[in-house]
Specification:
This protein is α/β, with parallel strands linked by helices. The chain contains 20 helices and 24 strands. Helix 14 packs parallel to helix 15. The chain is elongated and about 120 Å long.
Length: 612
Amino acid sequence: MLSRLRVDLPVAFVDAMLVVGSFVSLLAVRFDGDIPDEYSSRMFAFLPLVVTIHLGSNLAWGLYGQIWRYAGATEAGRVVLAGSCAGIVVFVVNPLRDLPVPRSVAIFGAVVATMFIGLVRFQHRLFSFRRRMDRSASRVVIVGAGSAGAAIVRDMRRSGYGGPTPVLVVDDDPRKQGRSLLGVPVVGDTDHLQDLVRRARADQVLLAVPSADQGFVVLVMRAAEAAHVPLKVLPPVRDLLGGAPSVRAARDLRIEDVLGRQQVGTDLDRIRAAVADRRVLVTGAGGSIGAEIAAQVAALDPAVLLLLDHDETHLHDVAARLGPAVPIDLVLADICDRDRLAARFAAARPALVFHAAAHKHVPLLEAHPLEAVETNVLGTANVVDCAAAAGVGHLVFISSDKAVSPNNVLGRSKRLGEQVTIRRAPDGARWCAVRFGNVVGSRGSVVPTFAAQIAAGGPVTVTDPRMTRYFMSVHEAVQLVLQAAVLAQGGEVFMLDMGQPVNILELAERMIRLSGRVVGTDVPIRIVGRRPGEKLAEDLRAADERSTPTAHPAILRVDTPSLPADELDRGIDRLAGLVAVGAEDDAARVLGELANQHVALDDGTMSAATPR
């Protein structure tokens, strides 16, 4: 109670001073600054009663004990009601006291006092609103005069004052140029976007073309960069909440938007037919690839989705993201534990398996080859053997472009994983391996690493300015993995079309610019040299491999040399023995020998995958 009094007494004192000041000022104005003595003496005798009436009315209407920082229309109404009641009482009492103030002063004194009392209470809201208007009121150039652009303009119009204001719409369609879109002039074309932004004195560019390909996004991005304004984009239609474009749906440009790849379509009907009402198991379901496989499979109406991972946190997280829409069975198990894995497969009896569990970080595995052998080779052997025993008809092994001419532990372990999957497939089983390159945003990959370094102010570390890599979004990679599962007849190694390689130094520079910073000035780039096991460039196929097209334009079949089954089995047994005794150097050596061994091609010639 005392603390409330300490807070409210200063407020009441300010209210009293505002009431006194309002009445005295109006009385002075009433008589042009020369107040007659008769009014002066009666006025000052009357003021204590006026102050008491106003403070009492304020108290009755709850103007004390409030947190006015968050006050709204209800509290504003109370201020008006309190002032009105006080004014009526003062107007009635005034003639009863022989008119100590003129009637006009009695009326307008209460009005002015109420205005000042409200201003004091709402000063934070009023000034913060003005600051918010000054900060957020921006002039926006919208790219795209289609339905999405119209929806954005309409949304901005509804936001009123203080929100972004559309000043120009840019479109390449000459039929739309020179017209008006909901009152905003439409001009063109995007080749002159930089000059148009500058002439319009715009603060921002918003790309309102949800179906824009990467080439167009890059064009708009470079124009915005040259004009020194930020760029917002509408996400693809599939990512729009409810499919309705809005200002709130616009987001910052992401690096996957500008990697230069063209998104490809998939035969969703065939994929759904292969998945619907079937039991599907995903190993490594808590990882970047496994979680996306789980999400896309869940949308295809499987009978049960079995998610297997040895990390309980990641397993819990992916299940929470999927929600209750599909029956999910969580399998907490390690693929290196053969007996437990066999029991899980025997109980689950999946019809389709996506094997994504693996170690994948190149420098780390160079230092710990036993871990790569145990998980990526022996763990894969466990999965395929348990799948064969459980009668799994479809199995997809997630491989890597590093399995092509492998010169590091990761690539060699993935190369052997492919061999194990193909060689140990039961007769008639439609098992395959799918290779692809770097996935944008996967844990530990270069993109999130650069993002963290940029957020910390740099430096961004690039191993070699000549280094290039293939990239694709995790969404597209998994779409094509599902498509490859449908195409498989048994024993294939598929390679996804990765588009054009991306220079890593240029990628770092582009990410810095996308963050709104200046390369070299705000965020420096440091060349640190290649790490163990890294290539300057990845290959899509080795010199001793042949590729042939499939029914899908973004998926190639790779005819790759294979080790004889008995030789492969002996090699796997040797690796298992070396892992059991912890012979790290010997395990790494044997892994390299097996992955790069001379093998027989289908035409009878001999070849070897020689590391570079």
